[in-house]
Design brief:
Helices cover 0% and strands 47% of the residues. It is built from no helices and 51 strands.
């Protein structure tokens, strides 16, 4: 990928040189430039794909002039300043096809060569509101061209304009119009000829076409590929030959013209030769004020050859009503009643033998059937027969006249000659009976009980046996929102579909559900419809209130916590939910002001038919007291059945009161012990140490010698230190609780 920086970016063009000098690119047929938006590349650049499409005379062209690369130049429109250049390498090459491959002419062979590369343009450089243009110049054109002076010394200049790549601080997304691939067709003297030069615009901009004089540019025989680019607000044009101009580029009874909206070229030439021309397509886009402004243009150079072709007569197409001798006369009106035969004989003649004639209706009108889309004329002047039939789809519902164009095209070269038969028809439309929508729901009204299925059939019928469609539409709601099921159905003449609904509690409401079932027939010249409306209501089912209880004899439980034996304060019981009705129950628990799971309570919520039993268990820990001497936990056990009535709930409450146990912290610690195995005072211990409470728990005991070295430690409140291995003397103890500590000396005597 290449990027055009702030001003010049020069590329080595030695690849364009042959033998040290540029080769004459004689027999350039034509071509154009393309610029396609790719997208941003970082903050400063926007990438575009640039292509140069070159049509080259493959029969007589100089092969050395098929450059491996081409150089295009960028200029600013406001002052023709050179902004930079880019080298585009050759990417593809292929032969150009004919519309009818059987019509190929050995003296007219064209090669399509594409050059291209992705290029980054700097948003700070290419921001001039007047826009920019890209050019490529090369000499020389085909010396056999008849409508310009000195064609062998005339250059070609491909030209493309594009707007600033930013507008109002944002990237201005735009791609140039893209011409379709040209055909290799030729023109026959004194025969009408069409050539599609239409382009498509990726941004859906409006396109306008016009013929312009081709640019010669600044290239010449002596300088076929200018190495120094020159910008210009008015590039030198080719010089027309005597008697030739924009109104007579290809002379004849119908000179070359281009449709300004479609780009279709038409011409009837009366003189053989090779003719060059240029079509300019301009793209327009609405601005903020709603006005269309031109934002860019592309010029395509091309040449067409006019030759003497073998004689070919156009076919002739005639029509008559089956069984009649008189042929239809264009401009007259054919009136057909509903019961008339709507098939007509087609007779196709051609003064040339061995011709295949294609038949087709112009436009996209339904209701026209051709018995054969192709017939064969074996001998000159023979007549082929087939039929065309018009069905009721051609008849407007108001009886207006319709115009049909039938086309007969032979397989002559380069393009078949044709004959068009324009037919005016007035067909009496068939009556279209209104279809009928019904149901088998009595009085079109029903009440459905929650949890109970409701269904009925819906019918659509049409006496005309048309294709019909049956749909259901809820007023102010969708069927899916209400849990209703009805699939649209189509068929011929009659259809049946089942409506189903099993309402749930959420669908119980004070007002009815109103549903329209609509049947519509599908008639090409107008449709009819009918609606049947039903009203449905959802009611809750009669239900007894469920009950929930526990196996506790008393709903209030008092527990005293012992951190040294937590299991002593455990609680366990069952919660039981039941219902006299066979309803589906839900059994759950809820802590009042606390999350019961976070404090370690164990309970499993359940659902199903009653009775439902789920055990509750809790061994509380001191942490749930949060430092208080007493804590209260209220637990609600809830049940709910699946009815929609207000009495579908029940609750029972269990209150658990936790208390911290008390303890006396006035202690007496012995200050001497004699480990002599006499069974008396053999170890240092404090058997009367207070028991732990939640707020004051025994943590450890530590004993140090007089030099501060720890000689003993224990986390048991019932510790015993026998002093084994330590000398007699004085030691010091530390007895630590959560918030209190006891210190003092103790003497070891032997």
């Amino acid at each position: 990928m290449k990027q055009l920086y702030f001003f010049f970016l020069w590329f080595i063009r030695g690849a364009c040189l042959v033998g040290g000098l540029p080769a004459l690119a004689t027999h350039i047929v034509g071509g154009e430039l393309e610029m396609q938006y790719v997208g941003p590349n970082g903050r400063d650049f926007v990438n575009y794909q640039f292509n140069l499409n070159l049509y080259f005379d493959a029969q007589f062209g100089n092969p050395q002039a098929e450059d491996p690369v081409v150089t295009v130049f960028f200029f600013r429109k406001s002052d023709n300043a050179l902004m930079g250049e880019a080298i585009l390498p050759r990417t593809t090459t292929s032969m150009v096809n004919y519309t009818n491959p059987d019509c190929a002419n050995s003296t007219l062979q064209t090669r399509f060569i594409r050059y291209g590369s992705e290029i980054g343009l700097n948003v700070r450089t290419f921001n001039d509101p007047s826009g920019y243009y890209v050019v490529w110049e090369r000499c020389c054109r085909n010396s056999a061209i008849n409508n310009i002076q000195d064609p062998g010394g005339a250059g070609s200049t491909f030209y493309l304009e594009f707007p600033a790549i930013t507008r109002d601080g944002n990237n201005f997304v735009n791609s140039s119009p893209v011409f379709g691939l040209a055909k290799g067709d030729y023109i026959c003297v004194n025969r009408p000829f069409t050539f599609d030069f239409g382009a498509r615009d990726p941004d859906r901009d409006s396109l306008i076409y016009r013929l312009v004089t081709p640019y010669n540019g600044f290239s010449s025989r002596n300088n076929p590929s200018p190495q120094t680019a020159t910008g210009s607000s008015s590039y030198p044009e080719v010089r027309w030959a005597a008697g030739i101009g924009l109104g007579q580029i290809i002379p004849g009874p119908q000179p070359l013209q281009v449709n300004p909206r479609t780009g279709l070229l038409t011409v009837t030439a009366n003189r053989t030769g090779l003719y060059v021309f240029c079509v300019q397509v301009e793209e327009y886009r609405k601005d903020a004020s709603g006005q269309y402004r031109r934002i860019g243009l592309v010029r395509r150079d091309f040449q067409l050859k006019v030759i003497e072709c073998p004689s070919n007569a156009a076919p002739r197409l005639l029509m008559r009503q089956t069984g009649q001798a008189a042929f239809y006369r264009e401009g007259s009106l054919v009136t057909l009643s509903r019961n008339d035969n709507k098939c007509f004989d087609l007779l196709i003649t051609d003064r040339d033998g061995n011709q295949r004639i294609r038949l087709l209706p112009l436009g996209n009108q339904p209701g026209i059937t051709l018995q054969n889309s192709e017939v064969f004329i074996r001998m000159p002047g023979d007549t082929a027969r087939t039929q065309v039939c018009f069905d009721r789809c051609l008849a407007p519902p108001d009886g207006r006249t319709v115009t049909i164009n039938l086309l007969a095209v032979d397989d002559g070269c380069p393009q078949g000659l044709e004959d068009t038969l324009q037919i005016r028809l007035q067909i009496e439309p068939d009556p279209n009976a209104v279809p009928d929508a019904t149901t088998d729901l009595p009085n079109q009204r029903a009440t459905a009980v929650v949890g109970k299925a409701l269904s009925f059939n819906v019918f659509g019928n049409d006496l005309d046996r048309d294709q019909i469609t049956l749909v259901a539409v809820g007023r102010g709601f969708t069927l899916a929102q209400a849990g209703m099921s009805f699939a649209s159905v189509s068929g011929t003449g009659s259809v049946t579909q089942v409506f189903r609904w099993t309402p749930q509690c959420g669908q119980v409401r004070s007002n009815e559900y109103v549903i329209d079932f609509i049947v519509t027939d599908q008639r090409c010249n107008g449709s009819q419809r009918d609606t049947v409306t039903v009203r449905l209501a959802a009611l809750p089912e009669n239900s007894n209130k469920p009950e929930v209880r526990t196996t506790l004899p008393n709903p209030v439980i008092e527990l005293t916590l012992n951190p040294e034996a937590p299991q002593e304060a455990s609680v366990a019981f069952d919660a039981i939910a039941n219902d006299k009705d066979p309803d589906v129950l839900k059994l759950s628990a809820q802590g009042r002001g606390f999350d019961w799971k976070s404090v370690g309570m164990q309970f499993q919520e359940k659902s199903g038919q009653g009775p439902l039993t789920s055990p509750f268990a809790w061994t509380p820990e001191c942490r749930v007291m949060n430092g208080k001497s007493e804590a209260r936990f209220e637990m609600d056990f809830l049940t709910e059945d699946n009815s929609c009535l207000p009495n579908r709930f029940d609750t029972t409450r269990v209150t658990i009161i936790l208390k911290d146990r008390s303890s006396n912290f006035e202690i007496t610690v012995p200050n001497v012990f004699t480990p002599n195995n006499d069974g008396k005072n053999d170890a240092f211990s404090v058997p009367e140490l207070p028991q732990s409470t939640c707020s004051e728990q025994f943590e450890r005991v530590e004993i140090y010698n007089r030099w501060g070295t720890k000689v003993y430690a224990s986390t048991s409140r019932l510790f015993r230190w026998d002093g084994l291995g330590f000398p007699t003397g004085q030691y010091f103890y530390l007895i630590k609780y959560t918030r209190q500590a006891f210190r003092g000396p103790v003497t070891l005597l032997r």
